[in-house]
Amino acid sequence: MTIQIDSREHRHAIIQIKRYFDRNGIQFFVSKLPCGDYQDLDNARFCIDRKKDLLELCQNVCQQHKRFTAELKRANDLGIQLVFLVEHGANIKTLDDVKEWKNPRLKKSPLAVSGERLYKILATMEKTYSTKFYFCTKAQTGHAIVELLRRYNQ
Description:
With 154 residues, the protein is of the alpha/beta class. The protein is 37% helix and 18% strand. α4 links the parallel β5 (81-87) and β6 (133-136). α2 (54-62) packs across α3.
């Protein structure tokens, strides 16, 4: 397996991911991708977009909705299945778990998006754009990327 990492990924954010790849003999290189952040060279029709937590994902789907959906549409137009890997923590393992998420912004603004509302938005996006949302801890990210790329390369 050789993994292409998008050149727009923040260098400091992917240090542990690269270390995981190195420790496990997985080749990788950094170059711009048309969508997403990670792709196996053996399957250019599948990409993973990494999000650092639910708060980032929430901002993307709510405040940057046009940009977010444009990337999903671009992936669909290119025949690429784009999925999302959210590094949130041990308490969020599935999309259903998002319902219980307590958005820290609710403390400052009662208009902030709740976990229940975010769940509904993400579930609608899965249906509309044929995407999926996966979840892991930061320590699991490298492994989760490899496993997802292998799963969708069969």
